[in-house]
Amino acid sequence: MAKPASTSFKVIAENRRARFEYEIEEEFDAGLVLTGTEVKALRTGKANIAESYATPESHGGNVEIWLINSNIPEYKQGNRENHEPKRNRKLLLHKREVNRLTGAVERKGYAIVPMRLFFNDRGIAKIKIGLGKGKKMHDKRETQKSRDWGRQKQRLLRENG
Predict the structure, then answer these.
(1) What is the pLDDT of residues 29-50, one digit of tens each?
(2) Quick one: signal sequence residues (predicted)?
C-alpha cells in the first residue's frame, strides 16, 4: 500500500529560476548526506541552491548523484568541527531513480536541476530535484527588428497623419 504524500514541510531554500530556465518533466525527492553542523546551519534557513546543479558520478563501480556548488554557510557555534560551505554532497535516491536520471542525462541531454531544499514533516532535510531540458531563448535580433519597425511605423503615422 502506497504511503500518502505529505504536504507539511518547511522550505529552506528555493531555486526560482529553475522553472524559468528549464522545462521540468519529472520531479524527485532525494535525501542529502549531511554532517551535524550542516543540519544546524540549515535550520537557520540561510542555504542557497540557486547556482547549484546535480550530476551523476561513478564511484567504485556504482553510479551516484552528487549535488555540486550548493552553499550551506558555516554554523556560527560549530568551531573547529565546522563543515566546508560549498562541498559536494551526495544525494540519496533509489537505484531505479539513479538509473533513470543517469540515462536521461547521458543519452537525451537532460539536466538535473535542484529546485527546493526543505525539511519534511519528520524534520529530515530533503531536496526536490527536477529532470528537465533547457528552454530555447528567443532570438534577440528578431525582437529588436520588430521593436524598431513598430517605432518607425508610429513615427510615419504621426508625420503623415
Answers:
(1) 999 998 888 888 888 888 889 9
(2) none
